[in-house]
UniProtKB/TrEMBL annotation:
Keyword Membrane found: no
Keyword Transcription: yes
Protein name: Constitutive coactivator of peroxisome proliferator-activated receptor gamma
Free-text function comment from the UniProt entry: Functions as a transactivator of PPARG and ESR1. Functions in adipogenesis through PPARG activation.
């Protein structure tokens, strides 16, 4: 969140603290000053996604191929300048920030309601002033950057702390983001993403030293300054009385400034006049109405101390819990057995195995001998399995593996952005999901949080492995009518898997074709599709994943029509041959609000599929479940509107469908047990009765006819 108003204050009142810099020149200077280390910029990615998403259309569910191309171009510019980028993403919502997270979600809900009202009135996308991030954009940005070969970190605590710590410890050239907390941390330079001009690679660098000179304080005062203005630890609501006293006694009060600007100046004036000591901090804590927790200021100041740093406001013998947590995360595991098993698993079960990865080559008796090198997965599995077997004296795994081992593995994958939400569930039994572009007034389509809850319940059951005595999982999910006063407590439910649900040891550690089949079947069981494995495995992986979601949606949402089904099928079948440039050129005469809603539901379904895939040991490659493989917002709008206008199948499929896959897709998606799919015109009813299969074959034969004509 940062310090409210500080960024604007610096721009208006301290213009000398905002220096335009050329990043190419700074990189060259960094090479001279640090000949042994390349220039690195650590990126606060959560603060950048809004600036990265520049496709014209954002309301239809996401222009994912366009966005992927934009990210690739962004990376290429920095690579051409010899600058390495390291991307950090928030991996958790810390308890101290839950209240602020909820406030933002409620505000976003209001913004989305206004957005849908605009679309219904004007049948078009509003201007950028009403911009809302496409659903799940930060999640898929993480995987996009990883697929582009970038170092991507998902944090275990608040990202700004880890970003600042990484920048300091690795002597980085700077931090790229848009968060005023980077003016408070005593770390490497802070660059603005908002002011970045990518074509020239220039931006604004904010100077902490100039800011301090204007405020009349020193760098060591900044953490207390942030706390006394209100931040994520110290609520603003408890500081109003203190601000009033500061304003009365401040010589810097200026009627031409806003009240917030005067508060910043007067608080700085107050701090400059008190001794810089722990006793002064204690006096402030006694003076302020901090309620029952008189340690808020201490905790707030401590939260800005990075590893190796001390503050005169904090006694040197008191350990900063946040710093300790960070150091523990960074340290190697000292247990040799767990360390070696974890290293093996990070190589043998890496879901991004199509990319070169760094493998830890460890001798069985010498954990210290680390050999780093880019190796492809197939080259290392056999050797590491052999080493692991010799080391443990087992063939190849012990009969019982402690549960904390799986949590440790999930943690490693979480940090490296290799799984989705698994560590949060295993470590805290808690999960959250932000707003989606959903129309709360459309009561015929449930919120995505409710649509996918049955699937999540099966995923929780797989992960928690507690038989009938599953612990409840806390869900903080945004949906209509949920004011987030407390989490929903969700009971895990075992999926229906023939022979019983495999345990994590089997799903995550075992090898062989039978295990691969178990993984795939268990994932399908999460979506109630375990009987359809043979048909789905015959499809290309991205199409199979898409059809898995579509079949599940048709079962869960009774209001979905034949026209909706045709639109989704036409989307996935026509998307494959289209480039980002072609999709950019696609023009829409209007925007349909229901299609906006459905597109968002589908995208959130992909995140549920990622979670299931992670829990089941990665039967799919994660790259095959990404939205740029199966979805485009504008194309879906076009197919949706064509289908609901009654366009012919030839027009809907663009005369370019492969008949075998078309046949299998239709049978898999449409023939659902005990479910009817009605046409909006009510002239046709698709059901699972025998005559429905005949209807499907008519559809298939027509697709064949279209294809033959196109050839």
């Amino acid at each position: 969140m940062g310090v409210k108003g500080l960024q604007g204050f610096v721009a208006r009142v301290c213009p000398d603290a905002c220096k335009t810099v050329d990043l190419r020149e700074m990189a060259e200077k960094h090479r001279i000053d640090h000949p042994d280390s390349p220039p690195v910029i650590v990126v606060d990615a959560m603060g950048c996604v809004r600036h990265w998403y520049t496709p014209e259309f954002w309301v239809c569910g996401g222009q994912w191929r366009e966005y992927l191309a934009i990210l690739e171009d962004f990376i290429k510019v920095f690579m051409a300048a010899g600058i390495k980028l390291v991307f950090y993403f928030d991996g958790v919502v810390e308890e101290k920030k839950r209240e602020e997270w909820i406030k933002r979600r409620m505000k976003n809900t209001e913004e989305i309601a206004r957005l849908f009202q605009f679309i219904k009135t004007h049948r078009k996308q509003p201007g950028r002033e009403m911009f809302v991030l496409p659903s799940a954009l930060p999640t898929f940005t993480r995987y996009a950057l990883k697929s582009l070969g970038q170092e991507t970190v998902c944090t275990l605590q608040e990202a700004d702390f880890e970003v600042a710590a990484y920048g300091l410890q690795h002597d980085c050239m700077g931090i790229l983001g848009q968060d005023s907390d980077y003016l408070i941390y005593n770390t490497c330079p802070y660059f603005s993403i908002e002011n970045l001009r990518l074509d020239r690679l220039v931006t604004v660098m904010y100077s902490r030293e100039v800011l301090c000179r204007v405020l009349g304080i020193s760098l060591t005062h900044l953490p207390l300054f942030a706390c006394l203005l209100g931040n994520d630890v110290v609520p603003e609501s408890q500081l109003e009385g203190f601000w009033h006293k500061c304003l009365i006694n401040s010589p810097h009060r200026n009627n031409s400034y806003s009240r917030r600007t005067n508060i910043l100046l007067s608080v700085a004036n107050y701090i400059s006049k008190i001794p810089c000591s722990y006793s002064s901090l204690r006096h402030l804590e006694e003076m302020l109405p901090l309620g029952s927790d008189k340690t808020l200021l201490y905790r707030g100041v401590s939260s800005y101390l990075l590893p190796g740093q001390q503050s005169p406001w904090i006694p040197p013998n008191i350990t900063n819990c946040q710093m300790l947590s960070f150091q523990q995360q960074s340290a190697f595991c000292q247990d040799k057995e767990i360390f070696q098993v974890t290293c093996f698993l990070k190589t043998a079960f890496n879901p991004f195995s199509i990319q070169p990865i760094f493998v830890l080559g460890i001798a069985p008796t010498q954990v210290q001998d680390l050999v780093l090198g880019p190796v492809k997965i197939d080259e290392v599995c056999t050797d590491h399995l052999s080493n692991l077997s010799r080391f443990l004296g087992l063939n190849p795994f012990p009969p019982i593996i402690p549960s904390f081992f799986f949590e440790q593995l999930a943690k490693e994958q979480h940090i490296q952005s290799e799984n989705y939400s698994i560590f949060n569930i295993l470590s805290n039994g808690e999960i959250e999901c932000s707003n989606s572009l959903e129309d709360d007034c459309d009561t015929e389509i449930p919120g995505q949080a409710l649509i996918y809850r049955p699937a999540r319940q099966h995923i929780y059951s797989i992960l928690l492995e507690s038989g009938k005595d599953y612990p409840l999982v806390k869900e903080w999910f945004v949906y209509s009518g949920n004011h987030l006063k407390q989490p929903d407590l969700i009971q895990p439910v075992q999926p229906s898997v023939t022979g019983g649900t495999p345990n994590l040891k089997t799903l995550w550690l075992a090898k062989g074709p039978d295990v691969e089949k178990q993984r795939y079947n268990t994932l399908l069981a999460c979506f109630h599709l375990q009987e359809e494995m043979e048909e789905l495995q015959a499809l290309e992986a991205p199409v199979a994943g898409f059809c898995c979601l579509l079949a599940y949606l048709m079962m869960q949402v009774s209001s979905l029509s034949l026209e909706d089904l045709n639109a989704f099928l036409a989307l996935v079948l026509c998307l494959k041959g289209k480039s980002a440039a072609q999709l950019t050129g696609l023009q829409l005469a209007q925007v349909d609000p229901r299609a906006v809603h459905l597109g968002s539901v589908l995208i959130r379904g992909l995140t549920t599929l990622l979670m299931a895939n992670s829990a089941c040991g990665f039967p799919f490659k994660m790259d095959d479940l990404m939205p740029w493989a199966v979805f485009d917002g504008k194309l879906f709008q076009e197919k949706y509107q064509q289908s609901h206008r009654g366009c012919s199948m030839e027009e809907l499929l663009e005369g370019n469908v492969r008949t075998v896959n078309q046949k299998k897709v239709c049978i898999q998606v449409c023939v659902l047990e005990s479910h009817q799919v009605l046409s909006c015109s009510s002239k046709y009813v698709f059901s699972s009765q025998p005559h429905f299969v005949l209807q499907i074959w008519v559809f298939i034969r027509f697709a064949c006819y279209v294809t033959e004509r196109s050839v």
